Here is the input.
Amino acid sequence: MRHQRRRRTLGIVSEHRTALLRNLVRALVMKKRIETTHARAKETSAMADKMVTIAKSEGLHARRLLISKVRDPEVARILISKIAPLFKGREGGYTRVLRLGYRAGDGAQMALLEWTAVFEAPAKKAKKKKDLKPSEKIAEKAEAKAPAKGSAKVAASKKEPEVPVKEEKKDAEKKGGFLGTLRKFLKGDDK
Here is the structure.
């Protein structure tokens, strides 16, 4: 009997449960918010709060404890250097669980797990340039290597891609088949 067993089993064996919670905490540290089921979010919240409490002590022992619990040195570093300083004046309550809707597949209650502190937004990644034609690649390399005086000449000689103009097909150009014959009949073209 499970007398005084307060934690949720999540329907899986204990080794799987600890690995699952470890991975959810790792994802929470890296992404700052995750979406999962409500039961998993509650368990992950408790574990993440414990990790922040350990990280607030900032020593070598704390770092080694975090690495042993989360199994990722990078996550331990982020916890100690970025997340723990935001919660210096707080004694717990580092995460929040917000209920979302129900999952369409099995009707499970979904939740959003996030830190209560505000993080700066990550910088947006620059969009990749579309693939250039070989001649454009050569021109781009030449422009990069050219001295400042000659850059105006290279820029002037660089042609901008022309947009092809769509030519409308005339009805007379359409030939063949039943519809072509019908068009000719209706227009009165007897050739």
Observations:
- The longest strand covers residues 95-102.
- The chain has a mean pLDDT of 84.
